[in-house]
Write a structure and sequence with these properties.
heterotrimer; A alpha/beta (about 550); B mainly alpha (about 190); C mainly alpha (about 350); B: about 190 residues; mainly alpha; Alpha-Beta Plaits; two-stranded antiparallel sheet; two-stranded antiparallel ribbon; about 5% strand; C: mainly alpha; 2 domains; 16 helices; binds iron/sulfur cluster
């Protein structure tokens, strides 16, 4: 039995930051106008990218799937509005790399006609949990808190769930989309939580909010009362960044620590973001897949900070324009909050499923980083690290690229919250060092797997050549016995002639490229990977 | 002063004991040495070291017949790892065997390929697909970038190209090494 | 619209090495003023010579090492080294003593090891130890504290002459101008088999920590507590050090209150408080894990008591700190905190 604490705990470390949420909460939640053109990336989640179902020129309806998920850990993508697919190609997407990824571009026809998605369920609360999961999967719902993990997978933890934790502790400064959602769509949130509870067959449910959002608490409390729901607890955790981290929130609410490299499910818990719950309700009660989300648009760089419901794929520039555009002060653009957000090089990228906030910041809000000094080992970072790490040691070894040592100091328990970097008096970009080390280590692992594969394949080949040689010798011996030996030189000469003939063919081929593409098609389907193609050279 | 010396001596003795103890306590027993050397080699199987692949080179190192600085694909990092494993001083890569370059993968220009199968015979890891008189293609995920298929091609249709950057394998730059954090260009 | 990009987090920073060092320097003020009040102008000369030398040496080394001079000078670390060294030196020391100490601290103990952040030993204490080993005589030149034996008091001019010219005021012998510190005194008298109550009967021993010294230590304590409130230092090192020093002194005092000094005397005499809050807490050379810092502090406390009681020097902060500096990496290694989500060790 998991005990929910009466008095939520204070997490270790962390920072008390100015909330800066009021400016975006001044105006009520509204919908952004439909853009003319939407750029919908195929990979907006953790896991394999989805595979397109449409072609350039196709007409699509709002809510119609335009890409399907082939793997378990993946999510389909839907057309955010009705219109025509005008391109399927590489476009820049919001990612720290600034690289491009495959996107479907849709020109909206303005009619916004919906497709029948078949997601709606009449009696959700009597439905089979597996059916609910299937529909959540088909609705393309992923964690809206920022991570983007497919929700259907998290609704199927493979073991009994005692406690469902709804994460509504929006701890990062500036971001207020969850608060806006809880205040203005209370019923939807509560429905979503109840559906999730049913899907997981969870015995207890607790919604964790921060104690600096009294209005949201109020709304939820009234909503729960109105729904006659007494079994959903609502608890406010002490406001400290990063109390909204999954591990931190669970610790604050239950006093339990998720094991390192483990999942909440290991302790019989599941944690979902409150926005995700609302999306589930929307999909199953109204039949609308995940084609829009609430985004906080804020910072001194936008004229009218607010929360907007934005269609996935809307170019950021359009979103900003519907908030009155940039102010003169706009100097930086972030997706996410100022502690963990990612920098965007331009505003031509689209809003995706995980875009909780667009922060157009002024130079005062995000000043250029001061030059880094050497680490003076003051351990201020240790004091604030919510994962109880020794950031100065991680830094030391990441800096010298000692990837074994940096893992000895538990690099992979770092949640990249940025607390350490913020308090560091030497202004060392600590988090970037950790991210650098993590991606390097992943790369080394990929290289190692690749080397292992190469070793295997090489050994296999050596063996095969050996075998073939033996077989050849045996045949030769047999041939010698039986027949008279054929002239030896013929072999090599025949080969040369063959090559010359082929060369001539190629010259001809180059002048008529049409045949080439036809042939390429046949080559592709010709043989499966790994087949023993070398042997037919005899 | 005497106290200082005594205290120093004691400290030194204690640390020495601790070190010695942990050396015994945490020693790892592992695979035979050839396996461990082979595990550090890049498995490009290019033969630049002068042996017919990584494993023969590993055997030669273990047998004391080859030096640790003959593998260009492994580069300095590889030499460093070997030196650590074998407890010898690292040395710079022997230029006779070639230079270390970033990984490049073979790409066959399918319009030019005549399907002669010579590259298939050269590939040490069977990463090339194709049959006689059909165009060939390289399985990128299995190509080790060994270069061996380039020379045999009678029509020079194989090129070694740096693999393009994709989001899934993108790496954060080392802090300070970047002008701007991202490779962001206009979309 | 295009934007520049940088790594998270982005919020404006509200601290810096310079600010940290400035805070520490400010926190030294009450103690330094007390020291000046009791020991006169020599303290000021020490401070001036030592800090100027430290800053000069820092600038020189930065130039030689081709590092940005201005930014590093402004981080205040060299200034602080100079201040700390000066506050441990005897006020009547000749001018070249602080100069030599500060120069050695910056050039050898700091920059030859790689500069800020890389020095394994506390530079100020390295300077001090070099001086006390090489010039034991000059390192005892403490005048009697103000208010005790008025007739010996030196004025500005006299001190200036003595420190810079080496000339004594007319009709005075050097011996008559200086006086052993309480710690020194206690040591010699214990050696002569006096009991603790006999030793402390003289006015030099003040109420509990030595005349004057108790006030100086209280002032450092106040400054130290302020630093802790301002989060410039953490509680572990001072607590570990003072706790260990107090406990071990108490044990011996209970066992034999005739031949060992009282715990309060150890806490409030000599450089105890300066050491606990300002010297031992020098981040670069100390242990960095929370538990490690407690042990590190405790080690300094125990060593301080041991050297004061049985060693050859009256005070022992410098030796203890340097010895524990040596142990810091090992302490860190064995005191790594349990990481979130890992089982208890
Ligand atoms: S806060 Fe910065 S300077 Fe201090 S120990 Fe951590 S990394 Fe080093
Ligand atoms: S080390 Fe990682 S988890 Fe700890 S404060 Fe820094 S970013 Fe956060
Ligand atoms: S040079 Fe080529 S064959 Fe030799 S060890 Fe290195 S990768 Fe393997």
């Amino acid at each position: 039995m998991i005990e929910i604490l009466e008095q939520p705990r204070q997490i270790f470390g962390g920072l008390r930051l100015a909330a800066n949420k009021a400016q975006s909460l001044r105006t009520p939640l509204r919908s952004a106008p439909l853009p003319e053109r939407l750029i919908v990336p195929l990979s907006q989640h953790i896991g394999e990218p989805a595979e397109t179902l449409v072609q350039v020129g196709d007409k699509v309806l709002k809510g119609q799937p335009i890409a399907r998920s082939l793997n378990y850990i993946s999510a389909p993508v839907h057309a955010p509005t009705s219109g025509t697919v005008t391109d399927i190609g590489e476009y820049a997407v919001p990612h720290p790399s600034g690289l491009k990824a495959t996107c479907v571009v849709i020109h909206a026809d303005g009619a916004d006609r919906s497709a029948d998605t078949g997601l709606k369920m009449d009696d959700v609360f009597c439905a089979d949990p597996a059916d609910i999961r299937q529909r959540v999967r088909e609705a393309g719902i992923v964690g809206l808190g920022g991570a983007g993990f497919p929700t259907a997978v998290k609704l199927n933890p493979g073991r009994p769930v005692e406690l469902l934790v709804i994460n509504a502790a929006e701890c990062e400064p500036y971001i207020s989309c969850d608060e806006a959602l809880m205040c203005e769509r209370t019923a939807e949130v509560i429905d979503g939580v109840r559906i999730m509870r049913h899907a997981l067959q969870a015995q207890q449910v607790v919604i964790g909010v921060e104690d600096n959002m009294p209005r949201a608490v109020d709304c939820l409390r009234r909503g729960l009362e109105a729904a006659g729901e007494r079994d959903i607890r609502l608890l406010a955790v002490p406001t400290v960044y990063p109390a909204g981290g999954e591990k931190q929130l669970i610790y604050a609410l239950t006093g339990k620590e998720i094991p390192s490299q483990g999942l909440p499910a290991d302790l019989g818990m599941v944690c979902h973001n409150v926005g995700t719950a609302a999306a589930v309700a929307r999909a199953l009660l109204q039949g609308e897949p995940l084609i829009s989300r609430i985004v906080t648009i804020t910072g001194a760089g936008v004229s009218q900070p607010c929360n907007l419901e934005v269609r996935i794929g809307t170019p950021i520039a359009d979103v900003i324009a519907s908030c009155g555009g940039y102010t003169e002060q706009a100097a930086h653009l972030l997706m996410g909050g100022p502690m963990m957000g990612i920098p965007l090089p331009n505003d031509r990228m689209p809003v995706i499923k995980t875009s909780n906030c667009l922060l157009a910041a002024s130079v005062e809000e995000i000043p250029p980083p001061p030059a880094a000094l050497p680490c003076i080992r003051c351990a201020r970072c240790t004091e604030v690290c919510p994962a109880y790490l020794l950031p100065q040691q991680l830094f030391w070894y990441a800096r010298s690229r000692d990837f074994d040592k940096v893992q000895d100091y538990n690099l992979f328990d770092c949640i990249e919250c940025g607390c350490c970097a913020r308090v560091c008096p030497s202004h060392i970009p600590l988090v970037q060092y950790y991210r650098f080390a993590k991606t390097e280590i992943w790369d080394l692992e990929r290289q190692r797997t690749k080397a292992d594969l190469a070793r295997q394949r090489h050994e296999f080949r050596v063996e095969r050549l050996e075998r073939e040689k033996k077989a050849l010798e045996e045949r030769r011996a047999a041939a010698k016995k039986g027949l008279a030996a054929r002239p030896k030189s013929g072999d090599a000469e025949a080969k040369k002639a063959e090559i010359a003939a082929a060369l001539a063919r190629v010259k001809g081929k180059k002048t008529q490229p049409a045949t080439v593409s036809a042939m390429r098609g046949s080559a592709d389907s010709e043989q499966g990977p790994g087949s023993d193609t070398g042997s037919d050279s005899r | 002063m005497l106290t200082a010396i005594i205290a120093l001596g004691t400290l030194a003795a204690v640390f020495g004991l601790l070190l010695g103890y942990s050396a015994i306590r945490f020693r790892v027993e592992g695979d035979p040495i050839v396996e461990r050397i082979d595990a550090l080699l890049p498995q490009t199987q290019c033969g630049q070291c002068g042996f017919a692949g990584c494993r023969p080179y590993a055997e030669a190192i273990a047998g004391g017949e080859a030096d640790i600085n003959q593998c260009p694909p492994g580069g300095d990092a590889g030499i460093q790892a070997l030196a650590e494993l074998l407890g010898v001083e690292p040395k710079p890569l022997n230029a006779e065997h070639g230079e270390h370059t970033e990984l490049r993968l073979a790409v066959i220009d399918e319009q030019t390929c005549i399907g002669c199968t010579l590259c298939i015979q050269a590939c040490p890891v069977d990463a090339i697909l194709g049959a006689a008189k059909q165009m060939h293609t390289v399985i990128a995920s299995e190509c080790t970038g060994c270069d061996l298929c380039v020379a045999p091609c009678p029509v020079d249709c194989i090129h070694m190209l740096a693999p393009g950057q994709v989001i899934a394998t993108w790496k954060w730059p080392y802090p300070g090494s970047e002008q701007r954090l991202t490779a962001g260009d206009s979309a | 619209m295009d934007f520049p990009t940088q790594s998270s987090p982005y919020l404006p920073v509200d601290n810096g090495v310079g600010r940290l060092m400035a805070r520490v320097s400010v926190a030294l003020l009450p103690g330094a003023l007390c020291l000046f009040w009791f020991f006169g102008w020599g303290v000021v000369f020490n401070l001036l010579i030592s800090t100027l030398t430290a800053l000069g040496a820092e600038a020189l080394m930065l130039l030689l090492r081709r590092r940005p001079v201005k930014a590093s000078l402004l981080d205040g670390s060299a200034l602080l080294t100079g201040l700390l060294l000066a506050l441990t030196l005897p006020p009547l020391a000749p001018w070249w003593l602080p100069m030599l100490g500060a120069g050695f601290a910056i050039v050898v103990a700091k920059h030859l090891y790689g500069g800020l952040g890389y020095n394994p030993f506390n530079p100020a204490m390295v300077g001090f130890v070099v001086l006390i080993i090489s010039f034991p005589l000059q390192m005892t030149l403490w005048p009697p504290p103000q208010g005790l034996q008025h007739d010996y008091a030196l004025h500005f001019g006299d001190t200036l002459q003595l420190v810079f010219g080496g000339t004594l005021p007319e009709g005075r012998a050097l011996d008559s101008l200086t006086m052993a510190t309480p710690l020194d005194n206690a040591k010699t008298q214990f050696g002569l088999d006096y009991t603790w109550s006999e030793i402390t009967a003289t006015p030099l021993f003040g109420r509990f920590g030595g005349y004057g010294w108790e006030w100086i230590n209280l002032a450092y304590l106040a400054g130290g507590l302020w630093l802790w409130r301002k989060r410039a230092i953490q509680w572990q090192i001072p607590t570990g050090m003072l706790g260990a020093l107090f406990t071990i002194a108490l044990l011996f005092f209970i066992a034999d209150s005739d031949s060992f000094g009282s715990p309060l005397f150890h806490l409030f005499s000599g450089a105890t408080m300066l050491g606990a809050f300002f010297i031992a807490t020098d981040p670069v050379s100390a242990a960095t894990t929370p538990r490690g810092r407690l042990y590190y502090g405790a080690g300094i406390g125990v060593l301080t008591y041991a050297i004061r009681t049985w060693g050859g020097y009256p005070d022992a902060i410098a030796f203890s700190v340097l010895l524990m500096n040596m142990a810091a990496p090992t302490i860190d290694y064995y005191t790594q905190p349990r990481v979130f989500g890992h089982p208890d060790k």
